[in-house]
Amino acid sequence: MxxxxxxAGVVVAFVASIVASITLxxxxxxxxxxxxxxxxxxxxxxxxxxxxxxxALERALITRDFTVKxxxxxxxxxxxxxxxxxxxxxxxxxxxxxxxxxxAGYVGVVLTKFRRRIADPLVTWALVVVLxxxxxxxxxxxxxxxxxxxxxxxLGFVDGPGPNPLLQNNVLMAIHPPMxxxxxxxxxxPFAFAIAALITGRVGEGWLVxxxxxxxxxxxxxxxxxxxxxxxxxxxLGWGGYWxxxxxxxxxxxxxxxxxxxxxxxxxxxRRGMLRVxxxxxxxxxxxxxxxGTFITRSGVLESVHAFSESSIGPLFLAFxxxxxxxxxxxxxxxxxxxxxxxxxxxxxxxxxSFMANNLLFAxxxxxxxxxxxxxxxxxxxxxxxxxxGVPYFERMTMPVGMVMLFLMAIAPVLPWRKASGExxxxxxEWPAWFAVGALVFSVAVGARGITPLIAFTLxxxxxGAALRQIVLATRRxxxxxxxxxxxxxxxVHLGVIIVAVAFAASNSYLRQTxxxxxxxxxxxxxxxxxxxxxxxxxxxxxxxxxxxxxxxDGEELRPAINQFFSxxxxxxxxxxxxxxxxxxxALIALPENDKQVVIRVTTQPLIAxxxxxxxxxxxxxxxxxxxxxxxxxxxxxxxxxxxxxxxTSV
Length: 651
Hints:
By secondary structure, the chain is α+β, with helices and mostly antiparallel strands. It has a domain at 512-606. The chain is built from 20 helices and ten strands. Strands 2, 3, 4, 5, 6 and 7 form a six-stranded antiparallel sheet that branches. The protein has a four-stranded antiparallel sheet with strand order 1-10-9-8, with helices on one face. Strand 4 and strand 5 form a beta hairpin. Helix 10 packs antiparallel against helix 13.
């Protein structure tokens, strides 16, 4: 029954995507309002089908319907309820279904948001593009990524293996992937409007207003997803880190970089009518990178703890990526004459100049990461050899770019549009300069050493001073309501980024790690702390046996453990004692042969907690940035507004 219901949902969503897109295309050609309404009504069936399919898969998992191959491969009676629910996206087919559900949800939001503007060709074309992307993903579910394949239960079958133990060892598994997908999939909407603007020839500034908020929320969800993924890695893997420049981590970071660049450069286009080609290219690149990232994650071409196993959908994703890139480049080339910008930069020492430098750095950053990520694929394709690009490459290549970005984060907020005088710049940089000096002095006073981290802390203080200056001036004028709006919300995001940068620099520069063998009752001193091994504890649950070593860390009891899942897999779970200044993590290296002796890894890192605090602050700033300040004027119909008028409207 679950197979039939699930297949029906997928078929309905796929057919509705195709029929709605064709109907809307015919309506565009004939300018037929009745066909437009029919197309919209059919498009709602995409969401209905997606919900039915997802509910069917969840029902199969909850009832342990092992006649569904996905449940047979990933389900188990022993899996706890929250992880059993999250199993729906723990494997390839289920993750594609979740992608389709989120995308169908965005279709529903678009239909609701633009229900009174569907007659506008720009909106209709954007909806057609979204529906065609939706059709691709549901087509995958009808073919190589079918989550509702049926299977005959073999004789003697008792229970399934359950999801990968790494995916049922931390509750973040239930939160991190959906958050990441909301960001990944959310970039489809601004991409669709960019393609629609190119098709209709309305490449001025009018379409930017509606898509800015879509891009902002997609970026915010992706930011939270990345931060939660780093937190999951830190809490589960026990290697003493949170970001290892893993190919799948890079796949999520790449669209974040290009999306961030777009959110900055779009302000130049809205204000001055410049960078039209660049902004359209950034939106198309951002969406293309989400598809490329999905290919990397789900094709099995690169080995990663985050990646799914090898599958046959890799070539299809690669072909889809090629189509998107070709269509985007072709349309931009076709509209080249209309994309010429009416404005120009008056001076490099201006808000426009700093944003362009910022965008150049983001582009370099993205290229460096993309090259390091796909280079092993290129080598394997050309020379049939497997190589890997390690952490040293990424750190060596990205560190200088990151430093310059911190410097620009201090300069850009104080610069006016068009041109800045030397006297104005000196006056506005006085606060940030004192913050930079204070940050350096404080860092040295608390024991920070090393030229690279000290430069990072100084530049972070410089950037924080500029952001705080803007926030203080805004709140003086308008009270706490002054925090709402793009500029001041953006400054809150900047503060979050600065906090993350400081925590990243400190935790990597001053990491201390050791592995020791302890007899019961033994104590060691490490990093000004005492570690005492008290003994072993064993706990059995429905799905696993947990063997934990009791370690006293300055009187605080930690229990690093080895989990033996009854499916046959064994993984470790570290335990962490954290404060606002330092984290101490203890991991049990291997299952002890007896309770008298254990081998543990001890890792100490400063300021880890501030990574998560900075990520939360970025999310708060994103929400504040999404809503216009009460003094700002918004046109009643941004999509159809005159481009010249839109170029001077602040949102």
